[in-house]
């Protein structure tokens, strides 16, 4: 069941909210909580009821292991619990990829298992690994089973995140005010959901019509065609995933659950470091807390810090998908981060040496003005370079094969020339280029949805805005589309 579907908008969500509100009104808080659990299970089963057995096993196994770790912190038990989770994830997500490469390297003909990827397995696996680690470290205080189940299956974040840590939501399940109607949260949640729905079905699904042919259909691309396709996908992915994340946040707020923010204007970043602090923020935090820091973080010198950064991004790339394109994408961002951190480390050392002289120089008005202009120019160049580096990475992220990625990159550097209008189904007309330019300006200068929602006031202007967003989005729902991050 997709959020932008008539079944969800006009059947599942109203019924779930009505029952939740009715039970909350009569202060049957346990009933309201159980309603959310049952609704989430129905939501998940709607995709394929056969996945239920796996998620039930995962919940039961991790709850039992987590409780034992809390009572008796045992490193072997923790290792067993994490290994079981990663083993399931590896089997369902990577076994065929592994067999394909064994066959390619050895010339063998081992038959593929054709394992179907269970929906959301990457997300609920990561959530529960975090839970086990925190239980081992004594960071988990609440082990009520209903709270744990709701933590895993809560339908707004179940399918594609945000990746929620127990400390973010389980304490909210213990508060009575969580299971009461809060009209402020309901209004803000409805706006954030409407904005996310608009982003997904009106913007992301529209520019997808320009991105898909360039990557999947064209045999070669000219300079304009390649850049048009790459930019179209860059904006498709942004508005698709940020749109989903905002719908999840909005739905959570409607039920008084505050989920962590997953996006904070990542295309405004002036460096790759800043990009990863604002893109898929919950994944970045998870990788930092449960991979980068356990690897040693920055505690053992610069070289090991760079190694840990590279490995973290490489494994983050592999988490996204079983394919060499994702390995290359993770490798690219690993190298980007190493270069970025190296540059910052060198810059810090130079600033320490010249700091006193620069401070004195800035007291001179002419120099102060020059430095301000130089800072604006430097930030603009840094943002553009960061954006281009991200786009190059997205080419591999989107391409089905390495050859498809190279096809796009060859066009982007002009190896196929720059004739205009050779393939009329690609974005190179004045309308398409105007739209892409408008989206570039939007993601670079406009306030994001969360910033915009902070201005919300309960009046007719906001009611009209929310209504227009919802009505416009509903008119676009008939187009067939899925969220890009569902495949991960």
Topology record:
Layout: H1 6-25, H2 29-45, H3 52-71, H4 75-106, H5 121-136, H6 145-153, H7 155-158, H8 166-173, H9 183-216, H10 223-254, H11 272-278, H12 281-295, H13 302-320, H14 324-361, H15 365-398, H16 402-412, H17 430-445, H18 449-453, H19 460-475
Helix pairs in contact: 1-2, 2-6, 3-4, 3-5, 4-5, 6-8, 9-10, 9-19, 10-15, 10-16, 10-17, 12-13, 13-14, 14-15, 15-16
Kindly describe this structure.
The protein is mostly helical and about 500 residues long. The chain has two domains: about 5-180, no CATH class; about 190-485, no CATH class. It is built from 19 helices and no strands. It has helices at about 5-25, 30-45, 50-70, 75-105, 120-135, 145-155, 155-160, 165-175, 185-215, 225-255, 270-280, 280-295, 300-320, 325-360, 365-400, 400-410, 430-445, 450-455, 460-475. The longest helix is centred in the last third of the chain and has 38 residues, at about 325-360. The radius of gyration is 24 Å and the shape is globular. The model has no long low-confidence stretch (mean pLDDT about 90).
């Amino acid at each position: 069941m997709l959020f932008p579907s008539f079944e969800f908008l006009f059947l599942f969500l109203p019924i779930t909210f009505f029952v939740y509100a009715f039970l909350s009104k009569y202060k049957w808080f346990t009933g309201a909580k159980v309603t959310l659990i049952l609704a989430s299970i129905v939501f998940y089963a709607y995709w394929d009821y056969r996945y239920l057995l796996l998620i039930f096993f995962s919940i039961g196994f991790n709850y039992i292991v987590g409780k034992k770790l809390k009572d008796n912190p045992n490193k072997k038990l923790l290792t067993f619990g994490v290994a079981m989770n990663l083993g399931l994830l590896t089997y369902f997500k990577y076994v065929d990829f592994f067999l394909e490469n064994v066959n390619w390297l050895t010339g063998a003909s081992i038959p593929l298992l054709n394992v179907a990827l269970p929906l959301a397995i990457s997300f609920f696996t990561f959530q529960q690994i975090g839970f086990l680690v925190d239980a081992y470290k004594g960071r988990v205080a609440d082990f009520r089973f209903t709270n744990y189940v709701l933590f895993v299956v809560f339908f707004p974040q179940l399918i594609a995140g945000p990746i929620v840590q127990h400390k973010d939501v389980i304490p909210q399940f213990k508060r009575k005010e969580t299971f009461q109607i809060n009209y402020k949260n309901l209004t803000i949640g409805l706006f954030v959901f409407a904005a996310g729905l608009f982003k997904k079905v009106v913007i992301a699904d529209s520019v997808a019509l320009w991105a898909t042919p360039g990557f999947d259909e064209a045999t070669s691309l000219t300079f304009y065609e390649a850049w048009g396709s790459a930019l179209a996908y860059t904006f498709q992915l942004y508005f698709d995933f940020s749109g989903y994340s905002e719908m999840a946040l909005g739905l959570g707020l409607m039920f008084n659950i505050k989920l962590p923010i997953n996006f904070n204007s990542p295309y405004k970043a002036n460096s790759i470091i800043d990009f990863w602090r604002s893109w898929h923020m919950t994944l970045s935090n998870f990788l930092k807390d449960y991979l980068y820091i356990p690897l040693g973080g920055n505690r053992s010198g610069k070289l090991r810090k760079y190694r840990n950064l590279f490995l973290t991004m490489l494994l983050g790339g592999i988490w996204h998908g079983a394919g060499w394109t994702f390995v290359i994408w993770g490798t690219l961002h690993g190298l980007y981060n190493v270069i970025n951190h190296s540059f910052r480390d060198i810059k810090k050392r130079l600033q320490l040496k010249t700091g006193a002289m620069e401070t004195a120089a800035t007291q001179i008005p002419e120099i102060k003005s020059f430095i301000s202009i130089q800072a604006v120019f430097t930030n603009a160049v840094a943002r553009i370079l960061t954006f281009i580096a991200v786009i190059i990475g997205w080419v591999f992220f989107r391409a089905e094969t390495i050859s498809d990625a190279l096809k796009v990159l060859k066009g982007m550097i002009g190896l196929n020339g720059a004739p205009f209008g050779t393939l009329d189904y690609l974005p190179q007309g004045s309308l398409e280029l105007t739209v892409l330019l408008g989206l570039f300006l939007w993601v670079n200068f406009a306030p994001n949805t969360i910033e915009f929602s902070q201005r919300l006031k309960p009046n007719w202007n906001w009611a009209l805005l929310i209504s227009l967003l919802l009505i416009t989005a509903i008119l676009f729902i008939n187009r067939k589309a899925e969220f890009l991050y569902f495949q991960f």
